[in-house]
Amino acid sequence: MPFRPKDTFKSNADSESTKERKRIHHNVQASSYWLPNDDIEQDRLNEMYFALKHLYSGQLLPKVKEILDFNSNLKVLDLGCATGAWILETSVEYPNCDYYGVDISSNFPALSPNNTHFMLHNVIDGLPFVDSYFDYVRLGHWTSNLKEVEWPPFLKEVYRVMKPGALMLNLEIDTMNHTLDATGSLTALYMVNKINKMYPDLVSVLPGLLKNAGFTTILTDKRSVNFGQDDHNNIRFVSLATNIIQKLGYLIGPALGMSAEEYIASTPKLIQKAKDNHAEWTYVAFLSQKPKKK
Ligand SMILES: C[S@@+](CC[C@H](N)C(=O)[O-])C[C@H]1O[C@@H](n2cnc3c(N)ncnc32)[C@H](O)[C@@H]1O
């Protein structure tokens, strides 16, 4: 099982703080994914989905829409889809496509449109799809999902299920921005991934991994959120950072060598420091393509 600092914490920041609360994690022995999969975590992931939608001005990068016609019947795959937020919204905006969401935990919607399909599946066991099926594959925040050795066979599988000319988007946070990481969350992410034999700086190695798997990277899009700037979306990210400290503090505190309670209690101070230091989070989107047949 993956390393996890303590599973329980007491917090004054949470509405359920008066009693000790146990967080819930998946129980798939073969997977090292170490973040929780309970309702609190799904709320956090939904909040992150909306913040990123704003940062990227919508569901799809302009380059994706330039190459693929989402008004036609594309086959779309969201790996590690969590609550299915991206699929649900995209399937309304582009109803002619078929959407498949795969995740190791089933936090899928109970009701969803006919053109959406959700599957409980561990991608380490391969992908349950025929060759050359998908036109677009999306992977959001995979930095804590796979061990280093699991990446090459996984990318080979993704490549297999994509049509020639199909696109894949990898969206990741840059964990190397340590000096500006006033809240400590990136440092903790880096450290826990390293202990779990995952790439602690996935953003630096992804281009090489993609190339080795046969993909051609056609766009690298970097966007930073500056905690010191008072614009609408940055405020949303400040709220997301506050949420991360409070909801994942039981992991981050111990990873930084302090108690969860101590770390969570310092939320206002950490956020103020992040604003004063103009701390940044940088997101990197890699858009790559399976080469077209010659
Ligand atoms: C950090 S969350 C990101 C969720 C969403 N993609 C996003 O961008 O917000 C990672 C997701 O990948 C899923 N996941 C982790 N390891 C997996 C595996 N081996 N197979 C399938 N899903 C996995 C987790 O359950 C979780 O929902």
Q: CATH topology, anyone? A: Rossmann fold
Please report the distance between the alpha carbons of the first and last residues: 44 Å
Largest sheet: 7 strands, mixed
Strand order of the largest sheet: 5-4-3-6-7-9-8
User: Whole-number radius of gyration?
Assistant: 19 Å
Shape: globular
Bound molecules: S-adenosylmethionine
**CATH 2nd-level architecture:** 3-Layer(aba) Sandwich
CATH level-four homologous superfamily name: Vaccinia Virus protein VP39
Number of helices: 9
SSE string, helices as H and strands as E: EEHHEHEEEHEHHEHHHE
How many domains? The number is 1
Mean pLDDT across every amino acid position: 89
Instruction: Identify the CATH class.
Output: Alpha Beta
* Residue runs with pLDDT of under 50 for 5 or more positions: 4-20
Helix content: 25-40%
Class by alpha and beta content: alpha/beta
Strand element count: 9
> What portion of residues belong to β-strands?
15-25%
Question: Could you explain the architecture of this structure?
Answer:
- This protein has nine helices and nine strands.
- With 294 residues, it is an alpha/beta fold.
- The strands form two sheets. Strands 5-4-3-6-7-9-8 form a seven-stranded mixed beta sheet, sandwiched between helices. A two-stranded antiparallel sheet has the order 1-2.
- The model is unreliable at 4-20 (pLDDT under 50).
- 36% of the residues lie in helices and 20% in strands.
- The protein has a single domain, classed as Vaccinia Virus protein VP39 (Rossmann fold).
- The chain binds S-adenosylmethionine (SAM).
- S-adenosylmethionine binds at residues 31, 33, 35, 37, 45, 48-49, 80-82, 102-105, 122-124, 140-141, 145.
